[in-house]
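Box 3.1. Reading complex inputs
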Amino acid sequence: MAQNISEITRRSRIASIDQAVLTNDQKNSILASISEALQTHKETIFAANQKDLDEAIETNLSAPLLGRLKFDEDKLSTVCDGIEQLIALADPVGETLLATELAEGLDLYRVSCPIGVIGVIFESRPDALVQISTLCLKSGNAVLLKGGSEAKYTNRALTDIIRKASLAAGGPEGWIHLLESHADVNALLDCDKDVDLLIPRGSNEFVQYIMANTQIPVLGHADGVCHTYIDSDVDFDMAIKVVIDAKTQYVSVCNATETILLNKNLSGQFVDTLIARLQEVGVTVYGDARIAEAYNVEEISEWHHEYLDMAVSVGYVDDLEAAIRHINMYGSGHTDAILTTDEDKARIFMARVDSGNVYWNCSTRFSDGFRYGFGAEVGVSTSKIHARGPVGLAGLSTYKYKLFGSGNTVDSFATGKCKFTHKPLNQSCPW
Amino acid sequence: MAQNISEITRRSRIASIDQAVLTNDQKNSILASISEALQTHKETIFAANQKDLDEAIETNLSAPLLGRLKFDEDKLSTVCDGIEQLIALADPVGETLLATELAEGLDLYRVSCPIGVIGVIFESRPDALVQISTLCLKSGNAVLLKGGSEAKYTNRALTDIIRKASLAAGGPEGWIHLLESHADVNALLDCDKDVDLLIPRGSNEFVQYIMANTQIPVLGHADGVCHTYIDSDVDFDMAIKVVIDAKTQYVSVCNATETILLNKNLSGQFVDTLIARLQEVGVTVYGDARIAEAYNVEEISEWHHEYLDMAVSVGYVDDLEAAIRHINMYGSGHTDAILTTDEDKARIFMARVDSGNVYWNCSTRFSDGFRYGFGAEVGVSTSKIHARGPVGLAGLSTYKYKLFGSGNTVDSFATGKCKFTHKPLNQSCPW
């Protein structure tokens, strides 16, 4: 049965206004109540999850997908740990970002505030529902969630528990809502008046589809073609250790390295070892013409290629500038690393590579909200507008300007009776 | 002759990478060189402007539009003052926004950086070209400009002078480019790979057209339906002074008040005076049923109405909450003010009104980049994503994450060999 989505988003908008004035203590006590309820009602969640798993087994879902769908004691404990972390984080709302005396008796403050209503469309993992909704709660945003249909029973159970626990702890009505069908999502795309931001997670095609079919701003990433550039001045052992991690630690994710760029002056012996190590651990190497010939591997047809698998593109570049040009041309602005002992080269690389995350001497796999200390993330943004990289509480906030006057008119400035002082104020917004 | 816009945006992208590494001193010396060149070549500019004015007079352009088109000593002096202000402002690029030790030997910094390539489509004022391009230069962004066709000679002269002065002072090639036709703008809308942000300034219809026809993020505002709410606890003289300013100081702009909301407990005598004063200064009053009847004025048909003229909607609301609901329902999220002596009511109003600029006891006309001390603005954003309110240097910046490692792998954390510390670092990013 189709839901009346424009009516629901209108209610979300109203809830978001109430959420905007919740204090940090109020939000933390709602979060604590949610964590407690999830543990109290865990058997309900596990039973709902079993129904999803039974159906998934009947439809021959693959083992990795079954693993992602499963919501057990371990997943419960992980999401509850995540909630504890969120409680410990500072309130992202109400922070004074700028304070200026515009003139005598006229003080301006830029103050962080929630965005409002956020729609998140995510994949099969039901634990993501808890992470996303609690991030939205702590940042003061109402959220409309659409999870994978294979997790529908679990998602319903989780949403129901979160909603009731939140109400019991004094949270506003209607800040969390679960969408259930593709028709609901399509209807959501038209609600640009009451939805401020969409965060689609999933395949490249899916994200592109959302972007092409809505006027609501979309945050997220279409793909992750991450690079690791190995400079000629490098610690060989470190380089091999880091590259193997960046490529193989978990291959089906957006921050895994998909292209290894080699400085042309690297020793043949080092490159021999690198290729051998990659192949030893099961990575299929695709090369530029020189690599393809030297190591008898298949030649690359296209550099902008996201394998999400045990495979990698390897090619030579003439120098640092060529590496930077290559990454800015063929990358996706996600995460790119330089491995070098030369600080100057690292500095130039990190300044000129136009990506959300630029690394020196470490694995591209670190670009993740948990690893960055953000508690969790609603996604990784490769957009350059609003939020970049892993998006946690800060990326779910915006700001408003608060101006405190004493009867000031613009005319009195236009006629020269008053003068702007534009003096920085060393104080926070009074409220 | 149509320009090859995708080739031009590609060159802008390349220029933007060079701009990203300019130091503040370099940018300031380019700005000083531009200011000097504008003054040295002022006769060239004035002559070009005369050609535009001659053509405009032939085509019977209205007097206010002729005033906007004119570029004379006064306008020159204003834009050069603006450049001086920009030079005095801190570099928006390279600011450390977050610093965290993720683990031993693994430091994360969130550092501000330019957005990249920005397209600005603006109205007839040629002085806007100087303001926008110098804001983009100081914030490290390449800019594609399309001004009003009635200012084409002036815009060409200004762009030419800015480009040459910038090159002479060591600025990168290709960071500023003038588009000349509607066909150029339409081609620009398709360049989502090389253009990061569009800022259209102009009519509601025009902005809506841009938003509907591009996948590039759009910053700006469609309309400005600003409100002034007069509470029952208010200083009457102050309220009348501020409302008259908010409505009449300059009527054709987005931050002029279009709706006055009156608390129903305001004295009849005050409302009599207010309406009389508005009508005295030439404002046509439209009222809700009660106002329409009491003052024999026309009744409002629609609350979301931007007059941009000497006209205003006036209506009663039951209380503060009703005023907030009205503004959140019918406003455009631009600028809304409360006039009251009651601090609690002001606090609630400013927390719950979901607009980019919320004011206490002053005129809505203050929401402007110059008045906010931003030097100038590229526009006022009513979007909630990325930048809100007047958009100056900060709104033209984004950030990237820089991660400084020492050979760190994610595997060493996954296997428990290393532990995340997530310790705040009390230091700026080293470079």
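In summary: Chain A touches chain B through 78 residues (CB under 8 Å).
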